[in-house]
Amino acid sequence: MRRSRFTEEQIISILKEHEAGVPTAEVCRKHSISPASFYKYKAKFGGMDVSDAKRLKALEDENAKLKKLLAEAMLDNAILKDVTSRKW
C-alpha cells in the first residue's frame, strides 16, 4: 500500500486549520492536496487528537500482525489435515 506523504500529526493539523474557519479549497491549495484526499483524511482523522491517531496506528499494526498469525496457523492446520488424511 502506498504511504501518505503526510504523517498523522500533519493531517490532524491540516484538519484543525480547516476547523478554524479556513475554506476547504484554500487548505487544499496551501498543502497541495486534492479535495478528495482532504475529505478522506477528514473521514479517518476527523475529531481526533495526535494521541488518538497514534493509538489508532498502533491498533492497526497490532491487528495486521494478528491477522498474519491467524492466516499462518490456518495454513499449518490445513497442511496437517491434508497429511493425516492420506492413506499410507
Descriptive report:
There is one protein chain. This protein has 88 residues and is an all-alpha fold. It is 76% helix and 0% strand. The protein contains four helices and no strands. α1 crosses α3. It is elongated, with a radius of gyration of 21 Å. The termini are far apart.
Keywords:
single chain; 4 helices; 88 residues; mainly alpha
Chain-wise SSE layout:
Blueprint: H1 8-19, H2 24-31, H3 35-45, H4 50-85
Helix percent reads over 70%
- Tally of individual helices: 4
Question: Mean pLDDT score, rounded?
Answer: 91
Structural class: mainly alpha
Using the CA coordinates, give the radius of gyration. 21 Å
Strand content: under 5%
> What profile does the largest beta sheet have?
none
Please outline what is shown here:
The chain has 88 residues and is mostly helical. Helix content is 76%, strand content 0%.
